[in-house]
Design brief:
The chain has helices spanning about 15-25, 40-45, 60-70, 85-100, 175-180, 190-200, 210-225, 255-265, 335-340, 355-360, 380-395, 400, 430-435, 445-450; strands at about 10, 30-35, 105, 110-115, 130-135, 140-145, 150, 180-185, 200-205, 230-235, 270-275, 280-285, 290-295, 300-305, 305-310, 365. The protein is an alpha/beta fold. The strands form 4 sheets. A 5-stranded parallel beta sheet has the order 3-2-1-7-16. A 5-stranded parallel beta sheet has the order 8-15-9-10-11. The longest helix is centred in the N-terminal third of the chain and has 16 residues, at about 85-100.
């Protein structure tokens, strides 16, 4: 069988992976999607209680909508804000069904990717050899399949960053996490067991992104209801600064409202704020509590639980035989990394990108979705949809379409994250008005939009979720 007859393998059945499959199917390319979880969108399902900033209208990939419409799908109300559960159950699961079980295979973990008969050192006929994708099924059975190309849309959800201020687990952190004292997800306080874990006790929240703000708002609400609940927010940075985001200036109103609610919780004294705290050790204390110790020697005592929301990192261990060209800082493709470096860019100054920036020295291997951003925290779902549109066009031989820019990005606040807000059915009038400008901030310079299509309001994923 020639390489042209082999399928394209997509790793991960999250929003971007399934969008890639829909793009490839629409272009008559054979495609297989492997998802480690038991359901499509398994990572999204794990943050099912978190509500997104974005409306349904910005969460559905164009080829996915076309496929679902053919299948008789009833689309959600465009201006409603879904939770992770909604996104998974009302969109990702039906999309996987529409694609079919022959294409989307759950409960199958990709354990390695290489070239048939060649490790990463061998040059001879490398580019013409098919990829070999090693699989492990849920029942332990192993298999390998051959592929013409591979799109890695596996996300970063499974690799949260540690509490330790130097990027490594703090001394004692691993043991505290094993004991259940430290967690790395926004708690679901609708779960009575999770609420009891924090009610009337001392919880430390560590981090500064939108997942952190979401946890602050949720736990502050619990503190108002449960006497004796104590909250401490520790930040590595020296001041809160712009952590609360753009407020009323944010063209995604739900995101701006989240920051304002977190700000009000701090101003109301519902939590203590400790800045410049870089955790070096987690020390056990009486009664199952712990103490957090900073590099400076500062301490936070009497801690019952720690909610660590310090971002995610890509797992590259199963790609050891693939020739990747990654930025040494962000672990993103080298041509993409300068465009997304959070030390330099907000999401609005990141230019739309596609196959050219997502390729590697390994011909036919592409990074996509949150995995393509490595350690950068500001990924947008619609960016991922544009990425896989470009990759699919390239694989179909439509090189002009692969390199055509079709997206304009917004610029207000930190463009990543998900939020909770008071009313899931928040009026859409303000949202619709905000969308009119085509972004979350000021309009791009004319030079940035020349030759591009009409801008769209770009969608946010949950920063805690990281697309799978």
């Amino acid at each position: 069988m020639s390489n042209d007859e082999l399928p394209v393998v997509v790793i991960g059945a999250g929003p971007v992976g399934l969008a890639a499959a829909a793009e490839l199917r629409e272009r008559d390319r054979e495609v297989l999607v492997f998802e480690r979880g038991r359901v499509p969108g398994a990572a999204v399902a794990q943050w099912n209680h978190v509500r997104l900033f974005s409306r349904w209208g910005e969460l559905i990939a164009p080829p996915a909508r076309r496929l679902l419409d053919i299948a008789g799908w009833t689309a959600p109300e465009e201006n409603a804000y879904p939770t992770g559960r909604d996104w998974q159950q009302q969109y990702l699961a039906p999309l996987a069904t529409a694609l079919g079980s022959r294409i989307v295979r759950t409960g199958v973990e990709v354990t390695g990717v290489s070239r048939r008969g060649r490790d990463r050192v061998v040059d001879a006929e490398r580019d013409t050899a098919p990829f070999t994708v090693h699989l492990r099924h849920a029942d332990g059975r192993e298999e390998r399949v051959f592929a013409a190309a591979v799109i890695d849309a596996s996300g970063t959800w499974g690799a949260p960053n540690p509490l330790g201020g130097d990027g490594l687990a703090a001394l004692g952190e691993t043991a505290a996490a094993a004991a259940g004292v430290i967690g790395y997800r926004v708690p679901d306080l609708d779960d009575p067991a999770a609420a009891a874990r924090h009610a009337g006790r001392h919880t430390v929240i560590a981090g500064s992104g939108h997942s952190t703000l979401t946890a602050i708002v949720a736990l502050a609400g619990l503190a108002e209801q449960a006497p004796g609940t104590r909250l401490t927010w520790v930040l590595r940075r020296g001041e809160i600064g712009a952590t609360f985001g753009g407020g009323d200036a944010d063209q995604l109103p739900a995101r701006g409202a989240l920051g304002e609610r977190a700000r009000r919780a701090v101003e109301a004294g519902l939590l203590e704020v400790v800045t410049g705290f870089r955790t070096a050790a987690v020390e056990p204390a009486a009664g199952g509590q712990v103490a957090l110790v900073a590099d400076s020697g500062a301490r936070v005592e009497g801690v019952d639980a720690v909610v660590t929301l310090t971002g995610f990192a890509p797992d590259l261990s199963w790609l050891s035989q693939i020739r990747l060209e990654l930025d040494s800082t962000l672990q993103a493709p080298v041509r993409l990394a300068p465009m997304i470096d959070p030390n330099v860019h907000s999401c609005g100054t990141v230019y739309p990108h596609g196959v050219g920036e997502l390729s590697h020295p390994e011909s036919g291997f592409y990074s996509a979705g949150m995995k393509s951003y490595g350690r950068a925290p500001t990924f947008l779902a619609m960016t991922g949809y544009e990425q896989v549109r470009s990759i699919a066009a390239e694989l179909a031989g439509d090189h002009d379409a692969a390199r055509r820019v079709e997206l304009v990005l917004p610029d207000t606040g930190v463009c990543g994250g998900a939020g909770v807000f008071d009313d899931p059915d928040t009026s859409t009038a303000d949202t619709a008005d905000a969308a009119g400008g085509g972004g979350c901030g000021g309009a791009p310079d004319a030079g940035e939009t020349a030759g591009q299509t009409v801008p769209e309001l770009i969608t946010l994923t949950a920063s805690g979720a990281r697309l799978s």
